[in-house]
Amino acid sequence: MLGRFMDFYVKDFPQYCSMITPHPLASELLDMALNKGFQLACSSNCVMPKIAIEERIRCCGIDPKLFAFIPGMEHMHYSKPDPLFFQEIADNLGVKTEDCLVVGNDLDEDMCAADMGMKTFFIGLLPEEINTRATYSGDLKDLIAMLEKEEI
């Protein structure tokens, strides 16, 4: 069964990439972060094999090799929204959680990284009435500006 699932992601899934429109600033953001010395980790929920997540990254027009770590169900012990998912990624990178920034668009599944001492950047507008664990919020332009000014 797993073999057929893997075959799907290698042979069939790429044809669906035409339905995805990559964000025009995503590559710029990743390149800037790498040029500033950041290690990149994908923090997509690991409910699929690593190869499936790599193919999803490719569909966004991004080379998975940019990431020092990509989670997959075959080697992770936790998944979102468990904050230990983010601890496990930091452990795999060999970094302290307080030196990490998690960027995500889900208040529950991504911002819980703050529970592990990580800084968080919520992509989107935060409703005023919501008490969130997001350290920062905005859009990719805002995040790029913060990186340029070394505010993160």
Strand order of the largest sheet: 1-2-3
**Taking Cα atoms only, what radius of gyration do you get, to the nearest Å?**
16 Å
The CATH architecture classification is: 3-Layer(aba) Sandwich
Distance between the termini: 44 Å
Uncertain spans: none
- CATH topology assignment: Rossmann fold
What would the principal axes of the Cα set say about the shape? globular
CATH homologous superfamily - what is it? HAD superfamily/HAD-like
Instruction: Give the class-level CATH name.
Output: Alpha Beta
Number of domains: 1
Residue share in helix = 25-40%
Ordered list of secondary-structure elements with their pairings:
Layout: H1 2-12, H2 26-35, H3 50-59, H4 84-93, E1 101-104, E2 119-123, E3 136-138, H5 140-148
Parallel strand pairs: 1-2, 2-3
Helix pairs in contact: 2-5
GO molecular function: hydrolase activity
Protein name: Phosphoglycolate phosphatase
Keywords: Hydrolase
